[in-house]
Every structure is written in structure tokens, then in C-alpha cells.
Write a structure and sequence with these properties.
Blueprint: H1 3-18, E1 29-39, E2 44-53, E3 57-70, E4 73-75, E5 79-85, E6 91-99, E7 104-113, E8 127-137, E9 152-156
Antiparallel strand pairs: 1-2, 1-9, 2-6, 3-4, 3-5, 3-7, 7-8
Length: about 160
């Protein structure tokens, strides 16, 4: 047998074995978020955050923004936590509501982060996507506009 062939075969085998310990690259995930706002007769604005993904998806979410802001008032329920979505099944990790006498503003920012190795760490994990839900609530605002709750989608690549 050709001695050069042995060395070439050994080198190819060594290179293929070197990659065995490497994690496979994660496939991109299409994730969507939307905010459903309800309004009752007492000017109570309820907010519910929904997520949906095209595949099973584990992530860390953070709720930020100013919240529900009115003349001299501000109410919010910032939140964060790990969450697991099953492919094609919408799920709701967060809801919040308060009274708002118009005029005012609703400002909620939803961030999707990589799942941290330690959920108690003070350091924010890498940001994968951000969704902003913001609208002005006017005095003649009879109901939440339909486009406020429209789905916002992003394609993200999770950490392996």
C-alpha cells in the first residue's frame, strides 16, 4: 500500500474525529410575539403577551418598557424567566392590567434571550430578538386598535 495513502487516511480520520465533541449548530427558529389588549367599561386595560414558534424552543424572556402610563401615574409588571414553547402552539407567559384614564401611553418591550446557564446570574444573556408594543391612548379611544396586537416575528438562532 502507498505510504502517502496511509498518512492521508490518518489525517482525514483525525480531522473527522476532532469534530465529534463539537455541539451541532442550532437550526433557526421563527418566533412570533403579540400583545392582546382588552378594555372594560372602567378604563381597565388588560395586557396579555403571547408567543408562538415553528419548532420547540426554549428561551429566556424579559418584559421591559414604561408599562401603562397616564397623567401622573405609571404601572408596570416587569418580568423575566425561562419559557418553553411547543412547535405551533401559542402560549402566554405574562399578563398585566391596570386602570388608565386617557390620555396615556402603553409601552411594553419584550426581549427574547438565550437561556442562561445560571438563571440567578445578574448578567443578561445574549439578546436574540426584541419586540416593541407602543401606542398612545387618546381620550376618544373607544377600543384598542387591531394593529396594536399584530404579530411581530423574528428568525433567531438559539445557542447550542
Amino acid at each position: 500500500m502507498n505510504r502517502g495513502f496511509h498518512w492521508g487516511l490518518a489525517l482525514a480520520a483525525g480531522l473527522s474525529l476532532a469534530g465529534l465533541g463539537q455541539p451541532a449548530a442550532a437550526a433557526p427558529v421563527r418566533v412570533c410575539a403579540w400583545l392582546v389588549e382588552t378594555l372594560d367599561d372602567d378604563d381597565y386595560h388588560g395586557l396579555a403577551l403571547w408567543f408562538e414558534a415553528n419548532t420547540d424552543f426554549d428561551f429566556y424572556y424579559m418584559i421591559k418598557g414604561k408599562g401603562i402610563v397616564g397623567d401622573g401615574s405609571r404601572a408596570h409588571s416587569p418580568s423575566k424567566g425561562t419559557f418553553v414553547l411547543s412547535a405551533g402552539e401559542p402560549d402566554k407567559p405574562w399578563s398585566f392590567g391596570t386602570n388608565l384614564t386617557p390620555p396615556g401611553e402603553i409601552d411594553v418591550v419584550v426581549e427574547i434571550h438565550a437561556t442562561p446557564a445560571d438563571v440567578f446570574s445578574e448578567e443578561e444573556p445574549p439578546l436574540l430578538a426584541s419586540f416593541t408594543f407602543n401606542r398612545q391612548v387618546t381620550e376618544d379611544d373607544p377600543a384598542p386598535p387591531k394593529d396594536f396586537g399584530a404579530r411581530q416575528c423574528a428568525t433567531v438562532t438559539p445557542s447550542p
